[in-house]
Design a protein that fits this description.
Helices cover 32% and strands 32% of the residues. The chain has helices at 73-80, 103-107, 125-136, 140-154, 169-180, 199-216, 227-233, 251-258, 298-308, 321-331, and strands at 9-27, 38-57, 62-66, 88-93, 109-113, 187-191, 219-223, 236-241, 244-250, 261-268, 280-285, 288-294, 311-317. The chain contains ten helices and 13 strands. With 335 residues, the chain is an alpha/beta fold.
Length: 335
């Protein structure tokens, strides 16, 4: 039964285990000397993919759901989409129990996976859109309104009438996104949406996701190995490792809580300057000199550099997001 007051995603102490079967061959101790005969026996093992995670996501949020390969990200998304049942715990999405596969629930969500193809290979893309319209029973007037918006936002007009097999990877991914949004879902799971795309196409996809979220107040759960996606789209991240949720909070808090240092990039008009007295020199290249400085004295260090050196440019940043997330994984949790 649907509960209107529920958040978009409510996961409570959820576990998901799988039984893995394998065959092993043992030497037969009764075999005559000099001969080797084998016999197989079946071995079963219980593998825990998701281990007691709890997570709540409000309507309209964009949350980065991150972790290394095998951490449990995709398993969690599949439980939220109703493709898998949790072994223990409760899952609700858009006020529904996903595993019930309620029709109204299925019309309210979309799961977009970077390697999944829903366009029909040999027909024009627009015909695949029409097929999705029929599957989701979108009324024609509403469909025309939505498709015009998606074509404009994703700039599809130049190739929407071509067969999917003739499109580049970037063109096809934009069409896949459009196809997944024909029914205007309010909860979207994006699993590696920019996988394999070049830099410019990644920027276009990110811009579209931001715009779609702003226009429709859609809740978006994003997984990606491209940290630029996360930095540009997500204010909040949840980190999963070995099936456990080890950090859930604002992206800005990650640097504040984990890193005692700032990075200061200084570009000087003179290259023959000793910068070691200001902090640890991490690198020297055409961009300038990159220093690591304790956060508590970063402001004073910047003031000293500006006063004492011939500076043409200066930038203060937190350490790269990849480094901070790796620190969480190395420590086994930040909470």
């Amino acid at each position: 039964m649907r509960c209107e007051s529920d958040p978009s995603v409510a996961v409570n102490d959820v576990r998901r285990t799988f039984t893995v079967r394998s065959r092993r061959m043992l030497d037969d101790p009764g075999a005559p000397e000099g001969r080797r005969r084998g016999r197989f026996w079946r071995q079963t093992q219980t593998v825990t993919a998701v281990d007691g995670i709890s997570l709540s996501i409000d309507r309209g949020e964009i949350v980065g759901f991150l972790g290394p390969n095998g951490a449990g990200k995709t398993t969690t998304l599949k439980m939220l989409a109703g493709l898998l049942h949790p072994t223990d715990g409760t899952v609700r999405a858009n006020g529904y129990v996903p595993s019930d596969r309620d029709r109204d629930f299925l019309r309210s969500i979309s799961l977009v996976m970077g390697q999944r193809q829903q366009l029909i290979w040999d027909i024009p893309v627009i015909d695949s859109f029409e097929l999705n319209r029929a599957v989701y029973r979108v009324p024609q007037p509403r469909y025309r309104q939505v498709i015009e918006e998606l074509i404009a936002l994703l700039d599809l007009s130049g190739f929407v009438n071509r067969p999917a097999r003739t499109l580049s990877l970037g063109q096809r991914m934009r069409c896949e996104l459009a196809a997944a949004l024909i029914h205007t879902p309010s909860l979207i799971f994006l699993d590696e949406p920019t996988l394999g795309l070049d830099f410019e196409m990644q920027k276009r996809i990110r811009a579209f996701i931001r715009e779609y979220n702003a226009r429709h107040s859609a809740t978006i759960v994003l997984t990606s190995h491209y940290m630029t996606d996360v930095e540009h789209l997500c204010k909040r991240i949840a980190l999963i490792h070995h099936g456990k949720l080890i950090f859930d909070g604002l992206l800005d808090d990650l640097a504040t809580r984990l890193s005692p240092h700032k990075q200061v990039l200084v570009k000087l008009r003179s290259s023959d300057v000793d910068m070691d007295r200001y902090g640890e020199v991490l690198s020297r290249d055409e961009r300038g000199i990159l220093l690591s400085v304790p956060a508590k004295i970063a402001a004073q260090t910047v003031a000293d550099v500006l006063q004492s050196e011939d500076v043409s440019d200066l930038e203060v940043t937190d350490p790269p997001l990849e480094d901070l997330i790796q620190l969480v994984f190395d420590e086994g949790g930040a909470q």
